[in-house]
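Lab notebook, bench 4. We co-purified these components, and the gel suggests they stay together. Before we commit to crystallization screens, I want a quick structural picture of the whole thing.
Request: model the full complex, all chains together.
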Amino acid sequence: MSEELRVSSIETRGAAGKKRYAMVVDTRRCIGCMACQVACKAEYDTPLGVNRTWVPYKVVGKYPTVKKQFLPRLCNHCDDPPCVRNCPVDATYKVEDGGFVLQRYERCIGCRSCMAACPYNARFMLPAHRTYSKITRVVDKCTFCFHRVTQNMVPACVQTCVGRSRVFGDINDPNSEVSYLIARNATQVLRPEEGTKPQVYYIGADRNATEFGRDAYSKPEVMEPERSAFKRHFNI
Amino acid sequence: MGDYVWFHDVSWHASYAIYFFVIGILAGLSFLSYGSWITPALRPLREKAAYISLGLLAVGGLLLIADLSQPMRFLNTLNPAYLNFSSPLAWGALNIVAFGIVSVLYILELKKGQDSARGKLLAMIAALLALGLPIYTGYDLTVHQSRPIWNTPIMPVLFVALAIASGSAAGSLLAGGNAEAQKVLREYMLWSTAGVGVALISILGTTNYGGSASELTFMVLTSGTMGTIFVGGGILLGTAAPVAILFLAHLRQQATAAMLMLAALLILLGSAALRYALLMGPQQLQTLY
Ligand code: SF4
Ligand code: SF4
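Here is the predicted assembly.
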């Protein structure tokens, strides 16, 4: 990732002496087992109805030529994150060395500006009641497993990924596996036109899975019960 | 079998639209209160507009605080150690507080019951700070680059026009049978509502002919329940109809009290509908991304 591509001062891709963690998701290897989603839930006790990572799928084609396309999703730990720019009280911030976009739970006022600013739906409001955690009624999101990565471990979803679809590492290190994968494969990021410089790179992602489809407008009926159940649970 | 997507909730709910509506009226009334120092016809509105404007600020402030998931932490937005000036909300919080302080000082000055130079100055500062309110709320939407409609340069301009329109409409309802004041107010209502109409035309154009997200948002906004609110309530009833009524009055240079009251009520209805649709519509699509 060349330094010349950096636009704003917050970006750290290619910055000397700094780490810039990224994830590569090889969608050709994803089998849709959702083990990553479960591992993340187990790691953080993420409440019902919200996720730090999730694996949506689309069925494309027409019988008999059909295929299920999986697109593992999470916070992109954008190099130029609009969520950070929009938080009125600096409750969400970017760690310069590493590029993690994190939350200060004790400071968040719950204005949801960051949620509105994120083009990827990576943020969610924690409900009023949780069993094992006192962190409630503030915005939460994927942390790229900051607590694990700073202990030289990979994120929980990466460790558990059965198909080895998810790979994590420092793209500022030219010898890392992520640097190798990005250099040797055609990659795609989600909604690059938003200027967020996402740091989750997809190999083999198809436009059917990454673009807004017309079904976003005419929602299939089958989804409505789940959608309204989610809203009932939301409680905030 | 439906495809599997995770459902996301909208970030900002309807209470935020009510806040926009309230803040628009209070800004408009504040302009009128200052206007009364320059246009003698508006003189009877000076005190009423200032009091109601401050009262609405209290309502709007409470709405905003209640909408936070951590209401007691609203003080964080005033903590200099926390403030992030790249966020429009930080500017908004400062603007609201400054407007509140100046409004109180202005009302204290009005209580003295005489036209003082200080009163005029405070009215002007209050009006300038009030102008900041629709600008910041519009800007608050404009900065979200991934949201069609919000991310158009017209948003703060539209919100200022809506503030003048709804403030003048509220002023017209307050002015009652005062013919002199009504004559001025009906012109304010006409031209600001016409301005709203022009802004809506440009929004519809850039959205309908934009990228796929814009096109889909256009479809959300112009069909179903949202279409009824946006096109029916906001554009036809709330903008086109009062402009037609007021333009007729402008051509004839006279208007009946019923016409004015109807136009004012329609403008208020329209500005509420537009606030709701413009806030909620552009969020719908993203809930499924
Ligand atoms: S994906 Fe969303 S939450 Fe994550 S850094 Fe980017 S804008 Fe922020
Ligand atoms: S919800 Fe919390 S983290 Fe998000 S913008 Fe508001 S204060 Fe910042």
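The two ends of chain A are 41 Å apart (CA to CA). Worth comparing against the SEC data before the next meeting. Residues A 86-87, 89, 91-92, 103, 108-114, 139 surround iron/sulfur cluster (ligand 2) (CB under 6 Å).
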